[in-house]
From TrEMBL:
Record's subunit section: Interacts with DAZ1. Interacts with the BBSome; recruits the BBSome to centriolar satellites of the cilium. Interacts with PCM1; localizes DZIP1 and the associated BBSome to centriolar satellites. Interacts with RAB8A (GDP-bound inactive form); recruits RAB8A to the basal body of the cilium and prevents its inhibition by GDI2. Interacts with GDI2; negatively regulates the interaction of GDI2 with GDP-bound RAB8A. Interacts with GLI3; retains GLI3 within the cytoplasm. Interacts with CEP164. Interacts with IFT88.
Family: Belongs to the DZIP C2H2-type zinc-finger protein family.
GO annotation, biological process: cilium assembly; heart development
Domain (C2H2-type): residue spans on this chain: 129-157
Name this protein carries in UniProt: Cilium assembly protein DZIP1
UniProt xrefs under Pfam families: Dzip-like_N (PF13815)
GO cellular component, one term: centriole
Keywords: Cell projection, Cilium, Cilium biogenesis/degradation, Coiled coil, Cytoplasm, Cytoskeleton, Developmental protein, Metal-binding, Nucleus, Zinc, Zinc-finger
PROSITE patterns per record: ZINC_FINGER_C2H2_1, ZINC_FINGER_C2H2_2
Gene name linked to the record: C9JDC7
Organism: Neovison vison
Localization annotation: Cytoplasm, Cytoskeleton, Cilium basal body; Cytoplasm, Cytoskeleton, Microtubule organizing center, Centrosome, Centriole; Nucleus
Main location: cytoplasm
Length: 158
């Protein structure tokens, strides 16, 4: 009765997916073998029954495929969500490491400059002035005098 109430041409013309979805289970799992013609009370044509049964099996297969693909899609969406979260964490780590690398490069440049200065001082050993109170060395006498007055004022009178 439900199926006979549906206007198939209207459903097809309007692409009424909602009506199809509401009736898909009724169509897929109905049994027509015992149905009889309301006018002549004869049974349904066996070839027509076979055609309907094949259509029902096809619908069952498509429903199964739809459920399988939907579950696969959910799994892939979850994996994608996790991958995006992991990617964001990796981006944050990469940014942090880039900052650390920049600081290390600056430190390396500073140390290279210090080493080259020390090498120049070692090469020019004769012209360097050593503090008598600590291990520091200076390029000229004025720097040494200013160092002694700042760092060793109590000993500067000596």
């Amino acid at each position: 009765r439900r199926l006979s109430a549906i206007d198939v041409d209207k459903v097809a013309g309007a692409v009424d997916v909602l009506t199809l979805q509401e009736n898909i289970m009724n169509i897929t799992f109905c049994k027509l073998e015992d149905e009889k013609c309301p006018h002549c009370q004869s049974g349904v044509d066996p070839v027509l029954l076979k055609l309907i049964r094949l259509a029902q099996l096809t619908i069952e297969y498509l429903l199964h495929s739809q459920e399988f693909l939907t579950s696969q899609l959910r799994g892939l969406e979850e994996r994608l969500r996790l991958s995006v979260a992991e990617s964001e964490q990796s981006q944050k780590l990469l940014a942090k490491q880039a900052g650390e690398m920049k600081l290390l490069k600056e430190e390396c440049k500073r140390r290279k400059k210090m080493i080259s200065t020390q090498q120049l001082m070692i090469e020019a050993k004769a012209s360097c002035y050593q503090c008598h109170f600590c291990d520091k060395a200076f390029m000229n006498q004025a720097f040494l005098q200013s160092h002694i007055q700042r760092r060793h004022p109590e000993d500067s009178h000596l």
